[in-house]
Specification:
By secondary structure, this protein is an all-alpha fold. It is 64% helix and 0% strand. The protein is globular, with a radius of gyration of 12 Å. The protein has a single domain, classed as 434 Repressor (Amino-terminal Domain), CATH 1.10.260.40. The longest helix is centred in the N-terminal third of the chain and has 18 residues. It contains five helices and no strands. Helix 1 crosses helix 5, helix 2 packs across helix 3 and helix 2 crosses helix 4. The model has no long low-confidence stretch (mean pLDDT 92).
Length: 88
């Protein structure tokens, strides 16, 4: 993978938690965000790191701010996580 796995996993978990709290199916969230359900699945599993534009679309589809989504992501990061060398 060409990205740090921990933030991708944390972001995916934050998205999944927000989606399930709303009682929204993955397919509906993907539709609202304008992406394929399979792509949303990859994001939720931490297999894909979305672009900033997609983060904003997902947050809007969840009815929250991207800042709230990032706070939830940061809270789910391992306490020991550090950006990889050269990736700041």
């Amino acid at each position: 993978m060409t990205f740090d796995v921990e933030p991708a996993l944390a972001f995916g978990a934050a998205v999944r938690a927000a989606r399930t709290e709303l009682g929204v199916a993955q397919e509906l969230l993907a539709h609202r965000a304008g992406i394929e359900r399979s792509h949303m699945g990859k994001i939720e599993r931490g297999e894909h790191m979305p672009t900033l534009a997609l983060v904003l679309k997902i947050a809007k589809a969840l009815g929250c701010s991207s800042a709230d989504l990032m706070l939830a992501t940061e809270a789910l990061l391992p306490k020991t996580w550090q950006p990889a060398a050269g990736k700041t």
